[in-house]
């Protein structure tokens, strides 16, 4: 069948029954009470939760063949927990697991691919599977298709009973022996643990893994002791260098700077750029530069924002210190400046990923965003956005919160160069549709700004940008310009076998990725 | 042009390509390694071949390691490598006709 963004999708993929995507705001929430595998517990003053062995922790959590395990991705490329836990699971001979982290970080030595090959992991659900695992999946590594969900859809799927987590392993940069845990202090601080809140409250068993035991009680406590079954102290949970090297640096690439500045100019030209606006800019090179240009506009015009949302960076923390933003709502922290900022500042707060982005709650914060800046690998002439696959058919990214932010923000702006190397990034049809075009207000490139005539604020934005003297082009113009530089690429050949299901915020299927022919 | 010795032009930087030209055995052999081979392999081969023909190269081993260079870059790097390998200067008078 063909869904509402024109993608050919099967009705069933193995056991997975496809609900086709019908529209960005169509999906109805589940009507049953929210699902959780969490059971009551019983403790007394002599209850011991602490162990120094991961194998012991796994045994105590009752992990057996065929269960589902989860992790958060807040330690990013510096994560040393996932590898250690999987090695311990392998040592115990447990097989056939579903691996359901908030996102798969590109860990090496051991790589997740090793655990798929030896049968420890047989299915995967995440927001992205970049790196070695992603490439292997596209080449047909797994029998079961990988299910990819944007950030907001993971808590939705858990509460709808579509994803049931048996054992959650929650890495913490500090914890006490009774399970109170945080990411905000300790030598491997990563900041917000917003992605693991849903795991703490919904998993059957919760194991906190830390390398930094603090005196009881651990303060602040992002994860509360009442949800924690076992605390495991290991030697090392991460590599602080890779968790976040200081402040993310400002790009010097003149093209990226130009795109960033233009994007900030678009925001500043909008009538919605006024006191009390809310924004999310993200962590890409263009995004961070864009944050700095936005701050300049705000200083010049004396405008203050009420909040910044999502993944935090040093640039946004700097805006907070200058008094340009009243509250920073952090679901994760992208660098060490942001990671340490929560404990030190009253109005820089850690939030649950569900309150950040879940469309099926009684209120996601991103509904209140005025502006959202989105990075992308490709955008097409229908304004559909690809944030997963490169044009030669390799796994390049993750869905992250992109589809959520685009739908929530009043004005969502996709920033990207029209070509990267010889790869065109404004195309006739994206290889994988992740974010539906109807939610994208503008595409900003070095070759011009294109507004989406199908967006709900098109007329308003067109009027504001025209009044500000900004030149607009059509998306078709950008596509042709890209093609004139690169030539027409050969299409990527795929087989009929579906290797990834790409879900939208509401759990419907917006696209699938088929195995790449080699 | 006659390829008299081995010569190189270009770099391995992103968006560039490195072209190595060596004396051949009477034919033109092209070896291409490219980051964008799936999408543009054929078109890059054509560009290299056309450029060699326009320079009158009939015997050469050509190795191109492409990092996503645009056509104009590939042409320029091939021309430069061939000139270096033949010891001849590029004939700029052809330039206008060459690019129409």
Question: How many strands of chain A?
Answer: 28
Distance between the termini of chain A: 26 Å
**Class computed from helices, strands and strand pairing of chain A:** alpha/beta
CATH architecture of chain B: 2-Layer Sandwich
Largest sheet report of chain A: 10 strands, mixed
Output the number of helix runs of chain A.
15
Q: Write down the CATH class of chain B.
A: Alpha Beta
Order of strands in the sheet with the most strands of chain B? 1-2-4-3
Described by its quaternary structure, the protein is heterodimer
Shape field of chain A: globular
Order of helices and strands of chain B: EEEHEHH
Task: Note the gap between the termini of chain B.
Answer: 22 Å
- Uncertain segments of chain A: none
Give the amount of beta strand of chain A, in percent: 15-25%
Question: Can you tell me about this structure?
Answer:
The complex is a heterodimer of chains A (518) and B (100). Chain A is of the alpha/beta class and 518 residues long. Chain A folds into 2 domains: 196 residues, Glutaconate Coenzyme A-transferase; 239 residues, Glutaconate Coenzyme A-transferase (3-Layer(aba) Sandwich). Helices cover 26% and strands 22% of the residues of chain A. In chain A, the strands form 6 sheets. Chain A has a 10-stranded mixed β-sheet. In chain A, α8 crosses α9. The longest helix of chain A has 17 residues. Chain A is globular. The mean pLDDT of chain A is 95. Chain B is an alpha+beta fold and 100 residues long. Chain B has a single domain, classed as Ribosomal Protein S5, domain 2 (2-Layer Sandwich). Chain B is built from 3 helices and 4 strands. Chain B has a 4-stranded mixed β-sheet. In chain B, α1 crosses α2. The mean pLDDT of chain B is 93. At the A-B interface, loops of A face α1 of B.
């Amino acid at each position: 069948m063909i869904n509402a963004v024109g993608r050919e999708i099967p009705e069933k993929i193995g056991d997975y029954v496809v609900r086709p995507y019908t529209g960005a705001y169509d999906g109805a929430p589940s009507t049953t009470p929210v699902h959780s595998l969490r059971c009551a517990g019983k403790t007394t003053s002599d209850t011991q939760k602490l162990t120094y062995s991961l194998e012991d922790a796994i045994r105590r959590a009752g992990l057996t063949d065929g269960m589902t395990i989860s992790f958060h991705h807040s330690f990013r490329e510096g994560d040393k927990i996932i590898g250690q836990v999987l090695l311990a699971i392998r040592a115990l001979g447990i097989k056939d697991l579903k691996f359901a982290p908030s996102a798969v970080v590109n860990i090496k030595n051991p790589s997740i691919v090793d655990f798929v090959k030896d049968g420890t992991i047989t299915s995967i659900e995440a927001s992205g599977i970049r790196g070695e695992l992603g490439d292997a999946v596209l080449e047909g590594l797994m029998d079961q298709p990988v299910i990819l969900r944007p950030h907001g859809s993971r808590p939705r799927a858990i509460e709808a009973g579509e994803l049931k987590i048996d054992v959650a392993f929650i890495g913490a940069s500090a914890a006490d022996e009774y399970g109170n845990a945080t990411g905000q202090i300790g030598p491997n601080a990563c900041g917000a643990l917003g992605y693991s809140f849903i795991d703490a409250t919904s998993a059957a068993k919760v194991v906190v893994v830390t390398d930094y035991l603090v005196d009881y009680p651990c303060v602040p406590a992002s994860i509360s002791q009442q949800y924690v079954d076992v605390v495991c102290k290991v030697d090392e949970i991460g590599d602080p260098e890779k968790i976040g090297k200081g402040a993310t640096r400002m790009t010097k690439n003149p093209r990226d700077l130009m795109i960033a500045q233009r994007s900030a100019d678009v925001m500043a030209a909008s009538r919605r750029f006024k006191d009390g606006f809310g924004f999310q800019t993200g962590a890409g090179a263009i995004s961070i530069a864009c944050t700095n240009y936005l701050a300049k506009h705000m200083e010049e015009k004396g405008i203050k924002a009420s909040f910044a949302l999502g993944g935090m960076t040093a640039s946004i923390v700097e805006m907070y210190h200058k008094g340009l933003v009243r509250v920073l709502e952090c679901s994760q922290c992208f660098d060490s400046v942001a990671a340490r900022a929560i404990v030190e500042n009253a109005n820089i707060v850690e939030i649950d990923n569900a309150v950040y982005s879940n469309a099926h709650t009684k209120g996601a914060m991103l509904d209140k965003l005025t502006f959202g800046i989105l990075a992308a690998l490709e955008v097409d002439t229908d304004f559909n956005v690809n944030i997963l696959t490169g044009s030669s058919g390799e796994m390049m990214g993750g869905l992250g919160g992109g589809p959520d932010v685009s739908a929530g923000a009043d004005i969502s702006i996709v920033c990207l160069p029209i070509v990267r190397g010889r790869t065109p990034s404004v195309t006739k049809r994206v290889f994988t549709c992740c974010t539906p075009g109807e939610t994208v207000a503008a595409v900003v490139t070095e070759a011009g700004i294109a507004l989406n005539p199908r967006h709900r604020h098109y007329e308003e934005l067109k009027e504001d940008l025209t009044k500000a003297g900004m030149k607009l082009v059509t998306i078709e113009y950008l596509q042709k310009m890209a093609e004139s530089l690169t030539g027409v690429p050969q299409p990527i050949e795929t087989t009929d076998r579906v290797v990834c299901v790409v879900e939208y915020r509401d759990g419907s299927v917006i696209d699938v990725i088929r195995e790449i022919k080699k | 042009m006659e390829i008299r010795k081995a010569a190189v032009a270009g770099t391995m930087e992103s968006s560039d390509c490195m072209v190595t030209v060596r004396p051949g055995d009477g034919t033109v052999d092209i070896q291409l390694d490219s980051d964008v081979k799936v999408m543009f392999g054929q078109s890059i081969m054509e560009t290299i071949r056309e450029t060699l023909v326009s320079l009158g190269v009939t015997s050469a081993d050509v190795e191109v390691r492409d990092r996503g260079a645009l056509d104009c870059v590939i042409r320029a790097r091939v021309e430069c490598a061939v000139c270096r390998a033949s010891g001849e200067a590029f004939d700029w008078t052809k330039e206008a006709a060459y690019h129409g």
